[in-house]
Specification:
220 residues; Growth Hormone, Chain: A; globular
Length: 220
């Protein structure tokens, strides 16, 4: 179904030709490094919390293990909406909208920590979490492609790797918080996730500064 959707709905775009040297050359640009860090930390907070969403819902909120799958459908609905409208916002005003979505994500993660003992509030928060989490994805990907437009293939590859690195780092950090009982262990995981997202916001603000002052981005 996904393949059919791509065939029917994704427009054909002729990519600009690039050599291997041209592709690798963008790695010398500080703006590319910042864009990658935006992805690692901007999305890393999502998996800091989401990796442990089942024990949060079962052990803290009090849902039955069998109901978690249905709750994740609600999260998935939020993902779909976030992906669609995150892309529309990125097309209109990329970096400001991306910053706004990241701020929303950080706030939602804090709210998850504050409301995870109330079932109805947790369900609402989980849905908005899905919207905010994947609302970031189109913007992060588009910013990377804009930053390294001379090397679209490498830019896409590196940014996907950055997403996966953020996933791994976030899951690891959440595990550390739980194992060391930092701030209450499992109860502190959403706050740790929000902190990771805040780091992503700081890198995004750095990226905006580079965008306004191209000399800071490293043009060579």
């Amino acid at each position: 179904m996904a393949l059919l959707g791509v065939i029917l709905l994704v427009p054909r775009v002729k990519a600009a030709p690039s050599s291997l040297g041209q592709e690798l050359g963008v790695l010398r640009r500080p703006a590319v490094h910042v864009a990658l860090l935006m992805t690692v930390f901007g999305f890393g907070g999502v998996f800091t919390a989401f990796t442990y969403i089942t024990p949060i819902l079962v052990d803290i909120t009090g849902f039955s293990p069998g109901s978690v799958s249905y709750i994740l459908v609600l999260f998935g609905l939020g993902i779909t909406i976030g992906n669609i409208y995150g892309g529309k916002l990125a097309d209109r005003n990329l970096l400001p909208s991306l910053t706004g979505i990241l701020v929303l994500l950080a706030v939602v993660l804090v709210l998850l920590g504050l409301t995870d003992h109330v079932k109805i509030l947790t369900l609402i928060t989980i849905f908005v979490f899905g919207v905010a989490a994947f609302g970031t994805v189109p913007g992060l990907q588009l910013h990377m492609l804009n930053t390294a437009k001379e090397a679209p293939t490498l830019a896409s590859t590196l940014n996907i790797a950055a997403f996966n690195l953020g996933n791994a780092f976030g899951a690891y950090l959440g595990g550390v918080v739980i194992d060391m009982q930092l701030g209450g262990g499992l109860r502190a995981v959403p706050y740790a996730a929000a902190l990771v997202t805040v780091v992503g916001i700081l890198f995004t603000l750095w990226g905006i500064r580079q965008h306004k002052d191209p000399s800071r981005a490293g043009s060579r």
